[in-house]
Amino acid sequence: SNVVFNAGLKTIGNQCFGQCTALQEVILPESLDSIGVQCFYGCTYLRRVIFRGAVNTIGAWAFGNCLGLRSVDFGGEIGTLGNSAFSGCASLDYAYFHGAAAPSVGTSVFGSSPSKAVVYVAEGSTGWGETAFGRVVKPESEYVAKEGVDHELSFNLPYGQDWSAPFFLTSTPDGTKPETEFLWGEPIYVR
């Protein structure tokens, strides 16, 4: 169900995990350089993908038709996102890009994924407009707790308004992970 790839892994080949319905979460190492064509295609129960570092190439349809995919966290620079890399991900809510620049992209990268999906980008990241891949772009400050600040949320919402947003605990001021009953890196939903 959850797969954490070992450090040192450089490449995951074409169609390697295609149609693997047991996968729910994939954590990819910093050493990863490329993901092949249709590598995770049709993994219908995959809900979250975390890239721990930069990746040079993500192949065409690499995560296509992963119907349950809700979030993708790109931990570093992404060189190229292939054609339809995340097309058909009907449950996608958000993608996070922590690199300093927008990736080079093929066509329909998020094609037929929900238009409500939001793309979050690192502060100062270049090459992004107000929209990317047909999705709204927002700065990461809208979801990442700032170091040196208490990890606390407060909202003033109109009575009866239903609202949720991702919030990630990054670290405490001394650089350690905060104690929490939530999984590290797991979104905390506020309603």
What's this model, at a glance?
This protein has 191 residues and is mainly β. The protein contains no helices and 13 strands.
Descriptive account of the structure:
The chain is mostly beta strands and 191 residues long. It contains no helices and 13 strands. It has strands at residues 2-4, 11-12, 25-28, 34-35, 48-51, 55-58, 71-74, 78-81, 94-97, 104-105, 118-121, 131-132, 135-139. It has an 8-stranded mixed β-sheet with strand order 1-3-5-7-9-11-13-12, with no helix packed on it. Strands 2-4-6-8-10 form a 5-stranded parallel β-sheet, with no helix packed on it. The model is unreliable at 144-191 (pLDDT under 50).
In angstroms, what is the radius of gyration?
A: 16 Å
Note poorly predicted spans.
144-191
Structural class: mainly beta
Shape: globular
Oligomer: single chain
Helicity, in percent? under 10%
What is the N-to-C succession of helices and strands?
A: EEEEEEEEEEEEE
* Beta content: 15-25%
How far apart, in Å, are the first and last alpha carbons?
28 Å
Offer a few descriptive terms:
8-stranded mixed β-sheet; globular; 191 residues; mainly beta
Q: Mind sketching the topology for me?
A:
Layout: E1 2-4, E2 11-12, E3 25-28, E4 34-35, E5 48-51, E6 55-58, E7 71-74, E8 78-81, E9 94-97, E10 104-105, E11 118-121, E12 131-132, E13 135-139
Parallel strand pairs: 1-3, 2-4, 3-5, 4-6, 5-7, 6-8, 7-9, 8-10, 9-11, 11-13
Antiparallel strand pairs: 12-13
